[in-house]
Design goal:
about 325 residues, mainly alpha, about 80% helix, about 0% strand
Length: about 325
């Protein structure tokens, strides 16, 4: 009887203890949230003020005919979006941004990987090589663009003088975008280089040692060990570079003397949007263009995430 009573009491007390533990954990989480909320409140306030509110304001303006003064705006519905879809200049500018992206992304991915391999495997002066490859990325965009504007200037630029050329880099539409691509590669490759270098340092050495014992040469080790181990970083680099390249603006504007380039050949989507908003004073139309561009960027990012998720699921 005594044993049965003890068993019954224990069976009843176990759920009670579980409920008590759950209640205590819930109370602690609430208390932690209350205290932690004060720490994140300044960030949330600034985020709402400088990100959420401008975004909502931009969405509203895209449905109006607002000008740069902000006065007398009237609701026009989807007229701005309909005009944008029929605007050939908009599609040309988007094409320039896409063309720039197609040139930059593969080149910068391959170049960053090769530079990282060099800096990782060189025996002497590693710090110097790493410094030389990364320092250009620290320069402001206007400084880098002004440097290359001078280098590519016909008649006095060092590029033509050094190689004995007479190429009108900045005044011919056939070369203008190429000049911007070269400047962008030199200026931004350091960031991707750093990502690859960090990933290379994380590959275990015993994988290479085992491959050497099996008779694998340097090429086989790179193809069968290095590249597979870097596939996630490569995907990240490609995604980041696509998003950054589609937003081409600084270097194109500065190198072309704050203009759209020869025969509008370097006018990007962002530049055309700013022209509509601050030159033509059509803030409502520029807001609609910004929303369209936001949707394009979001689609690219979500597609990248979906492809990565499918690849991870198929590899399991």
């Amino acid at each position: 009887m005594t044993t049965s009573a003890h068993m019954t009491t224990g069976a009843v007390a176990a759920p009670a203890r579980a409920r008590t533990a759950t209640a205590v954990a819930t109370a602690r989480r609430k208390q932690g949230f209350q205290h932690g909320g004060w720490f994140v409140a300044p960030f949330l306030a600034l985020f709402a003020l400088f990100v959420v509110w401008p975004l909502l304001r931009g969405v509203w303006l895209s449905f109006t005919d607002a000008n740069i003064s902000g006065e007398g705006a009237s609701f026009v519905g989807l007229d701005n979006y309909r005009e944008a879809l029929r605007d050939q200049a908009l599609w040309d500018a988007l094409g320039h941004s896409a063309y720039f992206t197609l040139l930059v992304v593969p080149c910068i991915t391959v170049l960053a990987f090769l530079l990282a391999m060099l800096a990782h495997n060189i025996e002497r002066g590693k710090w110097l090589w790493r410094l030389c490859f990364f320092v250009p990325f620290l320069l402001p965009s206007t400084v880098a663009a002004n440097m290359f504007q001078w280098l590519f200037t016909q008649g006095i630029g060092l590029v033509n003088e050094t190689f004995g050329l007479d190429t009108p880099w900045l005044t011919d539409k056939s070369y203008a975008m190429l000049a911007i691509v070269i400047e962008t590669l030199w200026w931004t490759v350091g960031f991707s280089f750093l990502l690859y270098l960090a990933a290379l340092q994380g590959i275990p050495d015993h994988l290479y040692e085992a491959a050497k014992l099996d008779g694998a040469n340097a090429w086989h080790r790179m193809v069968h060990i290095t590249l597979p181990m870097l596939r996630h970083i490569t995907g990240l680099v490609i995604a980041l570079q696509i998003l950054a390249s589609l937003q081409l603006f600084d270097q194109a504007v500065v190198m072309m003397d704050f203009g759209p380039g020869p025969e509008l050949s370097t006018r990007s989507f962002v530049q055309y949007t700013l022209e509509q908003g601050f030159t033509s004073y059509r803030v409502g139309y520029a807001s609609a263009m910004s929303i369209i561009f936001f949707v394009i960027i979001a689609v690219v990012a979500l597609t990248r995430m979906r492809l990565l998720r499918n690849r991870e699921e198929s590899s399991r």
